[in-house]
Amino acid sequence: MQEFTNETIDLENLPKYQDVVLTAPNPKYWNVIVINLSIILLLVGGGLATLFYLVDDEKPNPLYLLAGYLLFSALLFTIHRLSFKKRGYALREKDIIYKHGLIAETTTIIPIHRIQHVALDEGITSRSYGLATLQIFTAGGQTGHIHIAGIEVEKAKIIKEALVKRLDLLENLTAEQ
């Protein structure tokens, strides 16, 4: 029987995930974000314009509405741009790190042994730029899943294969014990 210990851990000697150099998304991914945002804003703008012309009540000055819409659009693009610059990921020996967010910065660290499934997603816009989204699903439910967008397809395939190989290795080690 193993002797029970419960020693205090010196927090200063723990490895610091903040020191890990993260890989940023491919700069071409910004084009994908711009295209997707533009499509959404055009659809919303078209819907608002249709609604504006269908309403028979007293209408506000359309220049004010247009100025508000353009200001909202500029704010949306600025927030997405700043958020884009904060994204990053790193594949380490025992885990994968993903950091994102502008106002609420989130850093997710998933141990390799918690990964259940790895998928590669290429959206229509991303595919035209040779980019993909790496989806990593864990046993911990929705909160543990991460989607790392803006990775070159070939690099995403390499990461996926590396994760799958590590999962197979861990599964084989567990089966032997």
Automatic annotation (TrEMBL):
YdbS-like PH domain ranges (all copies): 86-161
Keywords: Membrane, Transmembrane, Transmembrane helix
InterPro entries xrefs: YdbS-like_PH
Transmembrane segments: 32-55, 61-79
Entries under PANTHER family matching the protein: UPF0699 TRANSMEMBRANE PROTEIN YDBS, UPF0699 TRANSMEMBRANE PROTEIN YDBT
Protein name (Swiss-Prot/TrEMBL): PH domain-containing protein
Organism for this UniProt entry: Pedobacter polaris
